[in-house]
Design brief:
heterodimer; A: alpha+beta; Ubiquitin-like (UB roll); five-stranded mixed sheet; B: Rossmann fold; three-stranded mixed sheet; 11 helices; 41% helix; globular
Chain lengths: 81, 298
């Protein structure tokens, strides 16, 4: 399944580019995150202050189903003003 | 003679030919002329400047900006009232920029006072101002930069049950806060009052900006009900260096100018993410429809 992975700010350094296309065997967000950890060494569960978007929406349900062509973004949480 | 006619007569009569950078001249009204007319007629300086612009006369202090946004754009700015909520790193620079741009009125809200560790990034904080109220400092700064801007300063912390009182009558609400839960309260109030809301946040050398029009999901797409709203972000690890609030506040100010004047394309349904280390700007799309909750908690 092909999924687009977008990352911003410091997080993009884990992936070499701000937007990459992943071809992975996975059916849920959890499985995608496991594949990302295996391939890039990036563990979102061990990275505090990080949020994940699935197709433009904040996603905390890592059991959510993935579909071909889905867009996943990993973004740092910023709160200072 | 009626007041409006007298005002028109005075701004026309006391306008002067001013040199334009492109060569030639334009009809301008100086700060001193504006003050005198305001005193003579018992009006606010803002009303005098609005009358000048309505008659094709440019207050000299805005001339370089008018070349970019036009007389009509400047008039819209002079008539506009914006709330800046938070007067720290983002808010201090926002107030400075908006006053110089010629916003008509500002409502500045911040319950805090300055502490020594604010100095690195909060332009309103000075060595002799430690302990002073941030909202009051903003008001004092605007009075020095552009006394033709009306300012209301409120040293209060916003809550669900008091925010509407301060936002009513504003054309725009600008987020310069440092708390995600309070940002959500502010966006909710802006939506309820049908006021455009401009979000900005910073941490380390990263920043983000988004314009949320009434009905847009905005921050609810990021931190909707059930999503477990975090209180803080990565700034707890990486701090906030001097440059980041200045950059993000400038982008928020530009969003304000876009919304008020109708020029350009606001950053809507996108979260604009700025990485100053890499000089990279990335837009992350936001697609949650208005009123729809974010996905439930896992």
């Amino acid at each position: 399944m092909k999924v687009t992975l977008q990352s911003v700010s410091d997080l993009r350094r884990h992936f070499g580019d701000g937007e990459i296309e992943l071809d992975v065997e996975c059916s849920t967000v959890r499985e995608l995150l496991d594949a990302i950890r295996a391939r890039y060494g990036f563990d979102i569960d061990a990275t505090p202050h990080t949020m994940l978007f699935l197709n433009g929406r904040g996603c905390v349900d890592h059991g959510a189903r993935l579909r071909e062509g889905d867009h996943v973004a990993i973004v740092p949480i910023l709160a200072a003003g | 003679m009626k007041l409006a006619a007298r005002l028109k007569e005075l701004v026309s009569g006391r306008s002067t030919d001013e040199p334009a950078p492109s060569g030639g001249t334009y009809r301008g009204l100086t700060i001193e002329a504006t003050r005198r007319i305001a005193e003579e007629l018992g009006l606010a300086a803002r009303a005098v400047e609005i009358a000048a612009l309505e008659n094709g006369i440019v207050p000299v202090r805005y001339h370089r900006g008018v070349a970019s946004i036009g007389l009509e754009g400047q008039l819209k700015l002079r008539r506009a009232k914006a709330a800046v909520v938070g007067a720290g790193g983002l808010g201090g620079t926002l107030v400075e920029i908006l006053a110089r741009f010629g916003i008509g009125a500002l409502v500045v809200i911040d319950g805090e006072t300055f502490t020594e560790d604010n100095i690195n990034r909060q332009v309103l904080c000075t060595e002799d101002g430690i302990g002073a109220g941030k909202a009051e400092a903003a008001s004092a700064r605007v009075a020095r930069v552009n006394a033709a801007v009306d300012v209301e300063a409120h040293r209060i912390y916003i809550r669900k049950d008091n925010i509407d009182l301060f936002l009513r009558g504003c054309d725009l609400v600008i987020d310069a806060l440092d708390s995600i839960p309070v940002r959500l309260i502010l966006q909710e109030a802006a939506a309820r009052l049908r006021i455009p809301f401009i979000h900005g946040a910073v941490a380390g050398f990263a920043g983000e900006v988004m314009t949320v029009m009434p009905g847009d999901a905005g921050l609810l797409a990021l931190f909707g009900p059930g999503a477990g709203v975090p209180r803080s972000g990565v700034e707890t690890e990486v701090g906030v260096p001097t440059v980041t609030p200045a950059v993000v506040a400038a982008l928020e100010a530009m969003e304000a100018v876009k919304v008020i004047t109708g020029r350009g394309t606001p950053i809507r349904n996108r979260l604009l993410c700025i990485d100053l280390d890499e000089s990279a700007v990335t837009a992350v799309r936001i697609e949650a429809p208005a009123g729809e909750a974010a996905p439930p908690e896992a």
